[in-house]
Amino acid sequence: MNPRIQFARTAADLVETDLSVALVYAEISGQFWGDVERRHPDRVINVGIREQLLVNVGAGLALTGMRPIVHTFGSFLVERSFEQVKLGFGHQDVGGVLVGSGGSFDIASGGRTHQVPGDVALMDTLPGVHVHAPSNSREVDVVLRRAVASDGLHYVRVVGQTNAVAHAGEGFHVVRRGAGATVIALGPVLDEVLAATEGRDVTVLYAHGVRPFDARTLRSVLAAPEVVLVEPWLVGTSAHVVADALRDVPHRLLALGVRREELRRYGTAEDHVRAHGLDAAGIARSLDGFLGAGAA
Fold first, then answer.
1. Which helix (DSSP H) or strand (DSSP E) does residue 224 occupy?
2. pLDDT mean for each 10 residues of the chain (296 residues)
3. Is 163 inside any structural domain?
4. Does residue 120 form part of some domain?
5. Residue 216: which domain range?
6. Matching SMART domains, A to Z (predicted)?
7. Eight-state DSSP code of residue 249
8. How many whole angstroms separate alpha carbon 86 and alpha carbon 106?
9. With contact defined as beta carbons under 8 Å apart, do 286 and 256 qualify?
10. How far apart are CA 168 and CA 143, in angstroms?
């Protein structure tokens, strides 16, 4: 199932089954929520295309003790409304679940206004925020239910790019173990990483929970000083947490992600992924340069 449709179904089910859950959205995905909105108009609120209001309404509901799910495209939810996220949720110490779709380049045809490779980096400036990057419908369902049942502020990134296999547990999953470098795949880049590392004697770690960072597992599997970090958003976003996790361990770090130069044509999501070297061929070329062709 499409991850966005799964999100909509799970959110509707949470409203139906938990009186403390509210769903606030800004037109986007409204086509999925007609029935639940008619049944629960006091807890399913469409604010229209008013994204700053969207976040403030969610924060206000949180102040009353509700657990809000706040949703629109990530470019509008995080970038356009960041001051409201910072003050309404962060400064007031209230929790909620912010769900952004469309990142990084899911809506490439919408142009730069709808592209959001910097959302995780921006959310990472807030203290204590939990960041999730589920990579298929199964993970979306599990992650959203877990975030709503939890406390604190959570950002859930729902995108069209998917991995074939779901890993629903928290922390790192050891997908492949080797004697050479450790390659960290965050979110929906795992399939490309596995293709790029085929035949290499490397360890591959995967996580859909980007924050908090599972330093213990990383340290436990490290077999060589080379570490490669692959993220489907702004390059280097998680480099500081990797460096902190290995602060007393000699290591070399290669960070791969969306580069800072902009591809100034709409194209498709796949065009942008290739342009930033995040397809299997691009990742393999970067590994060759970092590790040496054919090396582990």
1. none
2. 94 98 94 94 96 97 97 97 97 97 91 93 96 97 97 96 92 97 97 97 97 96 97 97 96 97 87 95 97 62
3. no
4. yes
5. 173-291
6. Transket_pyr
7. S
8. 25
9. yes
10. 8
